[in-house]
UniProtKB/TrEMBL annotation:
The modification 4-aspartylphosphate is found at residue 54. Residues 3-119 form the Response regulatory domain. InterPro entries: CheY-like_superfamily, Sig_transdc_resp-reg_C-effctor, Sig_transdc_resp-reg_receiver, Tscrpt_reg_LuxR_C, WalR-like, WH-like_DNA-bd_sf. Coiled coil: none annotated. GO terms for molecular function: DNA binding. Transmembrane segments: none annotated. Gene3D superfamilies: 3.40.50.2300, Winged helix-like DNA-binding domain superfamily/Winged helix DNA-binding domain (1.10.10.10). Residues 133-198 form the HTH luxR-type domain. The lineage of its organism: Bacteria, Pseudomonadati, Pseudomonadota, Gammaproteobacteria, Lysobacterales. Keywords: DNA-binding, Phosphoprotein. The keyword Phosphoprotein applies. It comes from Coralloluteibacterium thermophilum. This is DNA-binding response regulator.
């Protein structure tokens, strides 16, 4: 029996996924959580083989959760199930140690097969997205991405500097670098473009 933990912030979606996976004779959904922190707490209790997570949830993202799992619980495989058909998200997911990446509009049997595949040590990635992911690479560094995300969400440079323990000038430099790399006119345009590409 493959034991699955679902991390999905939309209760209806989480319940439907649990019901669908529960129909499979070799799959068991041991818990459904609504955010990364509760998923992490349940993972640390043990008894989970595969984590199926959304990307955007309250608090930490599914990608941040996946990176934490890779570092502390390497035997747990991670499948991302998301609406984001963006190559940038896939590249970041693979960098975070994710073994599977599927879109929510995929047939239900594809998710079950993906869970089985990653449990065996394989990879399960939406084929069209995989081809697209080999295109444009993410030009941003981790720190540029972090600063740009905070700026795009409304934080002023002074606040970003305080939260990240950086100088005000360093924050401005990171923002300038991100704007220049993305070839746009300001931080808001940079944030929008990076979100559209899946780089944030």
């Amino acid at each position: 029996m493959i034991r699955i933990l679902l991390a999905e912030d939309q209760a209806l979606v989480g319940g439907a996924l649990a019901a669908l996976l529960g129909l499979e004779p070799d799959l068991e959904v041991v818990a459904v959580t609504r955010d990364a922190e509760s998923a992490w707490a349940r993972l640390r209790q043990g008894g989970v083989d595969v984590l199926v997570t959304d990307i955007e949830m309250p608090g930490d993202s599914g990608l941040e959760l996946a990176a934490r799992v890779r570092g502390a619980l390497p035997d747990v495989r991670v499948v991302v199930l998301t609406t984001f058909a963006r190559a940038g998200y896939l590249r970041r997911a693979l960098d975070a140690g994710v073994s599977g990446y599927l879109l929510k509009d995929a047939p239900a049997d594809r998710l079950a097969e993906a869970v089985r595949c990653v449990h065996r040590g394989g990879r399960a990635v939406d084929p069209e997205l995989a081809i697209e992911a080999w295109g444009a690479a993410d030009p941003l560094t981790d720190r540029e991405r972090q600063v740009l995300r905070m700026a795009g969400e409304g934080s002023a440079a002074t606040e970003i500097a305080q939260r990240l323990h950086l100088s005000h000038g360093t924050v401005r430099n990171y923002l300038s670098e991100a704007i220049g790399k993305l070839g746009v006119g300001n931080r808001i345009e940079a944030y929008r473009l990076a979100r559209q590409k899946g780089w944030l």
